Amino acid sequence: MTFLKTTTFALFTMASASTALAQEVTLRFQHFVSPKSANPTYFMQPWAEKIEKDSGGRIKVELYPFMQLGGKAPNQYDLIRDGAVDGGWVIPGYQPGRFPEAEAMELPFMTTKSGEAASVAAWKFTQKYLMDDFKDVQVIAAHMHGPGLVHKKGPSVKSVEDFEGLKLRGPSRAATLLLDKLGATPIGMPVPAFPEALSKGVVDGGVITWEMSPSLKLDELTDSHTDVAGDKALYNLYFIWAMNKAKYDSMPADLQAVIDANSGEFASAWAGRAHDEGDVVGKQVMTADGNEIGVLSADETARIMALGEEVTAEWIAEATDKGLAGAALVEDAKAFVAEGQ
Description:
Radius of gyration: 23 Å
Structural class: alpha/beta
Number of helices: 12
Number of strands: 11
Strand content: 15-25%
Largest sheet: 6 strands, mixed
Helix content: 40-55%
């Protein structure tokens, strides 16, 4: 009888250990764009698959596009923080003024046209300045996209004067400040609202990347796409890929290690590279559909850069008035970008 009890206890203990070893964690991440756009295609989905593989199938990451789990894109950070979702894609600039230091990475002509290189710089900048701002979540990656361009109805812009009076969608405060300097009427809105605004004539166009163009049907809704000359982007946008901190903390140490191994500079560069891959495809689609592809002259680009410098100087002054190290933020952002050139 004693032998049976001992054997039964041993089997129960082994079964419990086996169950613990095979513990499954499902993480529900959401984003606000088409699953066919660049970041979900070339980063989010492969990242989710790598997490599952590296964990031996113990972690499953489910991806929900178009904010299918609820909420609006501007509130994504709070949804993650509060545990409404386990993780997701956040554009801090969708809440102007909440994460002011992050805006330094978004200033005009701050980054090169390589999303991967810009994203490595973004991660380094985040490590130095922004981890306290994002202490309520577990930051997995911080990244940028490729070059932002002007997409509009009608012919391409060829000079600063061509911006006068255009109603243009801007994704961030820094972008709208530059559009205002250019003489346009900037209208801030998240990316999901852009196609409808175009179709209803609320805007004449806007600034966004090549890679987002096909999923937003910009080949149908706009006629021209214009980049600036040189190797610096007209503007860029800062993102984080993050998860709920309590969810992360509740995971066994070995599974946390899987997340950690797929975080940081490695994941940030990967996310930026996804945009670079998507930009190639997006430009091909716009070109194949017969849309006008324009590049501003070096002289006109220089005029825009001068206006961008005014935006940066005013941003530094404003940040300094708020008690932030405005000049240092900009200098360090530029230094981190230069390291990748």
